[in-house]
Amino acid sequence: MSADSTTASQGLLDAVIIGGGVSGLAAAWRLRSRRIVLLESQDRLGGRLYSQRASDEDYWLNFGAHLFPAPGGVVDSMARDVGLETLPITGSMMGIAYKDRILTSGRVETYPLRLPLPLREKIAFARAGLRLQRAVARYHKVLAPRPGEAEAESRRRRLAYLDDKTFADFLGALPAGTASIFACAAHRATAEPTSLSAGSGIGLFALVWAGEGSLIARNLVGGPSVLPEALGTALGGRVRLGAKAQRIAPTSGGTQNVEYLVNGRVESVEARHVIVAVPAPIAAPLIAPISLRASESLAAITYGPFLSMAILTNEITAMPWDDVYALATPGRSFDMFTNHAQVLRNTSERAPGGSLMVYAGGDGAAQMMTRPDSEIRETFLADLHTLYPETRGIIAATKIHRWRLGNVYAQPGRHELQGALEGPHGEFRNVHLAGDYFAELGSMEAAAKAGDSAAQHVELSLAQRHGSAPRMGLEDVGADGVVD
Description:
With 484 residues, the chain is α/β, with parallel strands linked by helices.
């Protein structure tokens, strides 16, 4: 991959993809037989798929998205194309740690009875949980696919589900302890219950309660970054790292000219289509010259921050969290505890060491990420040692990552923005949007599907308008990114 090569010798491209997260990568992968270039402003691909291998190669530090979808989807297809395979998570994903009690097994319906809550709180928790269970059942029925329904209409309908109130309004007034438990769940979507739409809050629980049938219950051995690294290697010179898109402008011939900054200089490339696959606040100014209405809707889409700390441990024996993958931790400085080594614990011999992550989302994360790393580390580890005293003395390394645009979430009224986002856009109908914000809940698969869908529209347009447009194999692109 090169950030230094010029694009002048490439001539007119079929498409420029802006953004190297999973959405942009899915678009580029779908169009890999076309004349394309992918522009990524950072020095790596993957966006929120970000991990680093530990020095011994057995474990990895994980900082962002880590739950991969089930086989059969876009992400799984890309992984298989580059020789990778995800493995099912066998550890508990619905555990909760409240005060001095850790629950990792049993039916979630029994949690109100088993947690150390006063009787008044138990009753309030049980009532809210029952209301939520009924809403989840309705959610599955209302959002089921309808024969003949266009995908754009289906998206708008899903986004409109209970979109007239917040999740806090739906739950009603709750005692402090119970409220903290539901707030912890909302923080998985990087939102507060008072800002998250009721429909999205219900959807979040529908996803979490899916259990063994969950669509996001798999891991990629080696860490999430293994996938974008492999895709980037396969795409080769089509990828420009350190290339920040600055402007999209239509030409008199109906194509689009994309200006980008690389190594301190402005370069440009012309293409028949542009796919903008960056977070909505970044996409908004880029698409403003093409569609002001779409730009305004993008600017109104909300993202929440999250703060993560990856932890390598050096224990030499089994630990009480070995059978736990994820644990909600209300009332602590972090909202989630995750055991990323759990996918490796399926052999008879338990290898030494491990990899953990703690995560904070929403307002608490926004406040904490202003502090220095040393203070964050001290705060997180103090709570981790209280949660699992066995972590004392086995912390080998920690690394903190701040995600200011952590995850997209829907506020009430979100569905009203959707019409302006559906494309293609512009006078020549050749600018397309892609990102996880097309779904009611942002996820890896939602982002990939949006990128893949945008690329399919590009392919259809190229076939209709230009006949058999020239295709390239990966061998046609040199190491410097110039078409041979």
